[in-house]
Amino acid sequence: MHVARLSLTDFRNYRSADLAFEPGATVIVGRNGQGKTNLVEAIGYLSTLASHRVSSDQALIRAGEDAAIVRAMLASGGREVLLELQLNRKGANRAKVNRGQSRPRDLPRYAHTVLFAPEDLAIVRGEPSVRRRMLDGLLVQRMPRLAGVMADYDRVLKQRNSLLKSARARGLAAGQLTTLDIWDERLVALGAELIDRRSELVGQLREPLAEAYRSIVDADHRPELQPVLSIDGADPDDETDAAGTAAEGRAASGAAGNVPTAERFAAALAALRRRELERGVTLAGPHRDDVLLLLNGLPAKGYASHGESWSFALALRLASAELLRGDSSTGDPVLVLDDVFAELDRLRRERLAAAVGGYEQVLITAAVLEDVPAPLAERVVHISAGSVVDAPAANAAALPSNDRESGEPLPSEASGV
């Protein structure tokens, strides 16, 4: 799959932009703050329903505007599909597929991308939420229906937390809050599926992760991934002993044997109810899980050097791309490297260029063109102050005009993400 054309209206610092792309590598060049990352951020949003830089859609809408529109024409195997997304300051986001009504959560069925950016260093060094977001973004691309499961889980979690806070304020004891059982059932049903899917994904990533790491570093540092599950007693928020926390979680998981995840989740909630009432928050579930990253048997967070951390994060993204490449009916995902080469030495730049050279489309952003290896720099787009100032000519037809200008709104019936 490749992006044949991208059109933006009031997205980030772009009043409007219209770009044609070809298969192969394209470098988007511009000084910092000019908007080059905004272009690839828009493409990435279509595949994961999230930005890799901010948690709220509001920051994606141009200042002073009520909505932003992203359009992308995707091509795969001689077929094309037009995706349109309207991000609204108020109300639900809206979407179309081939000009027909759709839901935003359906877009990842068509758009597959893997984006690596400087922010990804936090996958190795940051909080558990960053690693959860990385796994969930990949899950949504591989199983788009999970976007709905995740949204439903978040809604139930908020309701349950609200009930716990209310009970704490009223001084209710555990036995006096029978309505909590109803929310527990729903939380367990949704959460157990997310836990299982994440655990399966971690297992599937292990082999491609090791291969990707070796391709970048040319050394066997034994990169590993291990789930850290709160329903089995681990506390990923405890920074004092990450390795010990993970070991306790693995021991508890092993002791659980073949006990279904839903039963373990329900038992954890029952055991934690008193503490949850005291704190007014849900203490177990996929929203509190983590994945431990290991190099040479030691936690990468705290032990890995800066270069090793970069290589681990990049290898995780390349491993994700390999999984998508292997199970996608649309072929290769679009590989996006956002300001990556400036952080690598010459040898790792060359190794990375070789590793990504076989993908159908690679989009690269760079502040300095000379940072990008020559084999990837045949096509260059120059960006300045939210405008495309120079780009290769292409034969792709222009995308349909802005719906808001043409009087044809995106469908209000489409639900939000």
Describe it for me?
It holds the Pfam family SMC_N. Belongs to the RecF family. Residues 242-255 have a biased composition (Low complexity). ATP binds at residues 30-37. It contains 11 helices and 15 strands. The strands form 3 sheets. Strands 2-1-4-5-6-7 form a 6-stranded antiparallel β-sheet, with helices on one face. It is globular. It has helices at 36-48, 121-125, 128-142, 146-170, 180-217, 242-256, 261-279, 300-303, 306-327, 346-356, 403-406; strands spanning 2-11, 14-20, 24-29, 67-76, 79-88, 94-97, 100-102, 113-116, 224-228, 290-295, 298-299, 334-338, 361-366, 380-384, 387-390. The chain folds into 2 domains: 2-112 and 331-406, Rossmann fold (3-Layer(aba) Sandwich); 146-300, RecF/RecN/SMC, N-terminal domain (Glutathione S-transferase Yfyf (Class Pi), Chain A, domain 2, Up-down Bundle). The protein is of the alpha/beta class and 417 residues long. The two termini are 24 Å apart.
